[in-house]
Amino acid sequence: MSRISKTPKPPYYAVIFTSQRTAGNNGYDAMSEKMVQLASEQHGFLGAESVRDEAGFGITISYWKSLEDIQAWKENREHKRAQKLGKEQWYDSFMTRICFVERDSSADHKQ
């Protein structure tokens, strides 16, 4: 996944998923890669950015054209399976926030 997503001109939506991982992998890395690939195939998906520190704290932001596209992704059968495993095995805690992006700006300073 690219570090900074190339999103279109606003408006669009951002889903911010903040989480604290449990110890161990338990298949998490493979499922995470699968979810990024599956999300990228969904209608309205614009990109994603994700980071996780050594202590297991992470933030993933996905970008979407509409609230309907976000809801369809939430209801995706494979994504629902991953959500269930996340609650049962992978996360000590998490928070999901949905934001409306009205404006953005960027710079690309190549050195």
List the SSEs and their pairings.
Layout: E1 12-21, H1 28-40, E2 45-52, E3 57-64, H2 67-75, H3 77-90, E4 91-101
Antiparallel strand pairs: 1-3, 1-4, 2-3
Helix pairs in contact: 1-3
Write structural notes for this entry.
Helices cover 32% and strands 33% of the residues. The protein is α+β, with helices and mostly antiparallel strands. It has a single domain, classed as Alpha-Beta Plaits. It has a 4-stranded antiparallel β-sheet with strand order 2-3-1-4. The two termini are 21 Å apart. The mean pLDDT is 94.
In what order do the strands lie side by side in the largest sheet?
2-3-1-4
Q: Can you tell me the CATH class?
A: Alpha Beta
Spatial separation of the terminal alpha carbons: 21 Å
Task: Report the CATH topology name.
Answer: Alpha-Beta Plaits
Total beta-strand segments: 4
Structural class by secondary-structure content: alpha+beta
Q: Which architecture would the CATH scheme give at its second level?
A: 2-Layer Sandwich
In percent, how much strand structure appears in the residues? 25-35%
Strand/helix succession: EHEEHHE
Mean pLDDT: 94
Let me know the largest β-sheet. 4 strands, antiparallel
Poorly predicted regions are none
How many domains? Answer: 1
The whole-angstrom Rg is 14 Å
What is the helix content?
A: 25-40%
The general outline is globular
How many H/I helical runs? 3
